[in-house]
């Protein structure tokens, strides 16, 4: 038996241990939040929200107790309630019921945490307008969320949601709803009650059908149902009269739906099972600009494709198309046609190969030129015999048939320094809507263009030697302008041909201020010029949807002005001199296509830029200071 008395086990380190302190936020940060009403605690590794954050509007600061009568300018009783709380990119697993102590919150950002449920007290935040819950572990959305009557934006992407409560339809103020990257198999039948909704993202779920009530969303401008299991879409989709962008990529659709939205511009239908395009389906797409039909089973392209008079981009990659209608070459706005992976016969390989943006554009130009040249000789001969075609001294032909049916006046690739009067005479009183005078040697805008100012909506003056464009400002019906690769500073006398390249390397001044009068302008192409700054007048043309400024020397862009262009969906600033991308550019929420590659900035990194517009915009928003 041991001589020593057995004792309980002794913790020799007990005196050195301290209780784990409750997480707190530095007083300086809290004081700043009391003044601004905004508190940014993103990316701080928090596993719970500190108590002094919940009580920021309840507790009197210690230093305030000592300065009540000191005349200090930071008087706590005059400080503002917290309205914006950013808690993104932490490690929060739950939110306390004490969130009710912040009733003035209008923005609550909980993105990128580990939340699996929400406290019921959250419904007491009646002023809440924006609730961000993306990249969490939520498996369900509580029904009481419908009590947030002022909620305008709800972000729930990248969670584990399998269903949604019927009460979701009670959020009458909701403008933006993002449910992408979840596990949803269906939607509430009353989703159509969200009558204020403008953006709805349902991509990357397991949806096999959409409720008929979706047609009641008559204010929705952007609908994304990509990467689901849809085999059809409801006919009521045609009632969404405000729809501008529709994404239905990567589904199981075998028919293009009849879409009657008069403002639908972008339609993405790639990676489905479509075999045939019906004429009536195309005839309703009167405003379409981008049509993506890649990776389907389409066998032919109907002649009615020419009805898409506003089409700028057509992607038919990887289909079963064996021939193209020659009339495709008559689409005057078409800038990009992608055809790789089709069993086309009779076309040179270089017309189909996809390369960089420059070679693609050049290939499209050559393809359309080839298709126009494929108009049968018999038709050309008969046209020559008719009085509707006239031969000018330059031996160029103006076809009255094209002017009368397509309302298009074309006199391009003539290498002429002036447009003959006979060309304009042929179009008198014909209501011409489109003019193409590209690839000539024009040094000024032909003054007789003003004869078409009541009808002209599209003008292409690219690849000339123009020194200015002031007369264009009087063409108030213009919706599309192409001035690519032409701005050149010319001396008073006409230079000799061997110095043309030299003058193209000079700087061009801003676009004329009078261009702000073009209130119907939707797109402007200014690629390959010498702009050193973003043309200020463009900020004033609020109707703009597309601005292409690639391959210039632009060194900056002002997001505060750009945000005023609420319709802007495409902005190309590639290959410029941008040293810094302002984070506030991420707040330009209308942008669906932003090109920034080829600039010398260091952030965002090239890997983020390569991921596309959504990744870039999300990165920029994450860098906005509180």
From TrEMBL:
Q: Does the keyword Calcium apply?
A: no
GO terms for cellular component = cytoplasm
One family from Pfam that matches here is LRR_8
Q: Which residues form the signal peptide?
A: none
Q: What are the UniProt keywords, alphabetically?
A: Leucine-rich repeat, Repeat
PROSITE patterns from the UniProt entry: LRR (PS51450)
Entry keyword Signal:
no
Q: What PANTHER family does this protein's entry cite?
A: PTHR48051, RAS SUPPRESSOR PROTEIN 1
What is this protein called in UniProt? Leucine-rich repeat-containing protein 40
The lineage is: Eukaryota, Metazoa, Chordata, Craniata, Vertebrata
């Amino acid at each position: 038996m041991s001589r020593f008395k057995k004792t309980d086990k002794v913790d020799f380190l007990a005196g050195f241990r301290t209780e784990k302190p409750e997480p707190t936020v530095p007083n300086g940060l809290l004081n700043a939040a009391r003044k601004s009403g905004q508190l940014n605690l993103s990316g701080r590794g928090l596993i719970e929200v500190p108590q002094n954050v919940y009580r920021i509007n309840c507790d009197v600061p210690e230093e305030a107790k000592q300065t009540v009568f000191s005349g200090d300018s930071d008087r706590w009783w005059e400080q503002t309630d917290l309205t914006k709380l950013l808690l993104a990119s932490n490690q929060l697993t739950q939110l306390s019921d004490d969130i009710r102590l912040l009733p003035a919150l209008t923005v609550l950002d909980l993105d990128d945490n580990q939340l699996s449920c929400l406290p019921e007290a959250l419904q007491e935040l009646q002023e809440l307008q924006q609730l961000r819950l993306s990249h969490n572990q939520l498996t369900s959305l509580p029904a009481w969320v419908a009590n947030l009557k002022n909620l305008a934006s709800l972000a729930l992407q990248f969670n584990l949601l399998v269903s949604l409560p019927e009460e979701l339809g009670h959020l009458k103020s909701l403008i933006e709803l993002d449910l992408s990257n979840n596990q949803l198999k269906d939607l509430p039948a009353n989703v159509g009650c969200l009558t204020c909704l403008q953006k709805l993202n349902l991509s990357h779920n397991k949806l096999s059908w959409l409720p008929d009530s979706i047609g009641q969303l008559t204010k929705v401008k952007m609908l994304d149902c990509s990467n689901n299991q849809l085999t059809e879409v409801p006919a009521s989709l045609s009632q969404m009269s405000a729809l501008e962008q529709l994404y239905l990529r990567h589904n199981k659709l075998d028919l293009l739906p009849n879409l009657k939205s008069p403002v639908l511009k972008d339609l993405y239908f790639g990676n489905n099972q479509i075999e045939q395009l019906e004429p009536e389906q195309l005839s309703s797409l009167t405003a379409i600009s981008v049509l993506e039909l890649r990776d389907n089973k389409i066998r032919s392209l109907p002649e009615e494709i020419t009805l898409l008079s506003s089409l700028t981009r057509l992607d038919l990659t990887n289909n079963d198309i064996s021939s193209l209608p020659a009339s495709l070459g008559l689409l005057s706005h078409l800038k990009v046609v992608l055809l790789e992976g089709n069993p086309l016969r009779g076309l040179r390989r270089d017309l189909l190969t996809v390369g960089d943006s420059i070679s693609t554009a050049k290939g499209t130009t050559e393809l359309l030129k080839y298709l126009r040249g494929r108009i049968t000789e018999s038709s050309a001969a008969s046209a020559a015999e008719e009085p509707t075609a006239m031969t000018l001294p330059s031996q160029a032909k103006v076809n009255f048939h094209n002017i009368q049916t397509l309302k298009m006046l074309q006199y391009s690739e003539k290498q002429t320094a002036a447009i003959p009067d006979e060309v304009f005479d042929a179009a008198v009183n014909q209501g011409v809507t489109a003019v193409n005078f590209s690839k000539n040697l024009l040094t000024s805008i032909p003054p007789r263009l003003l004869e078409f100012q009541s009808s002209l909506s599209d003008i292409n003056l690219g690849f000339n030697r123009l020194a200015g464009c002031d007369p264009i400002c009087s063409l108030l019906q213009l919706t599309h302008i192409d001035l690519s690769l032409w701005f050149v500073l010319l001396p008073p006398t006409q230079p000799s041909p061997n110095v043309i390249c030299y003058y193209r390397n000079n700087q061009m001044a801003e676009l004329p201020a009078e261009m702000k009068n073009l209130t119907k302008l939707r797109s402007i192409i200014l690629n390959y010029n010498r702009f050193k700054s973003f043309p200020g007048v463009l900020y004033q043309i609020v109707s703009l949807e597309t601005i292409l400024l690639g391959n210039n020397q632009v060194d900056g862009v002002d997001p505060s002005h750009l945000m005023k262009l609420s319709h802007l969906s495409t902005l190309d600033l590639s290959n410029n001199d941008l040293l810094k991308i302002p984070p506030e550019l991420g707040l330009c929420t209308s942008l669906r296509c932003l090109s920034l590659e080829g600039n010398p900035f260091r952030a965002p990194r090239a890997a983020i830029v390569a991921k596309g517009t959504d990744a870039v915009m999300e990165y920029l928003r994450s860098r906005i200071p509180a």
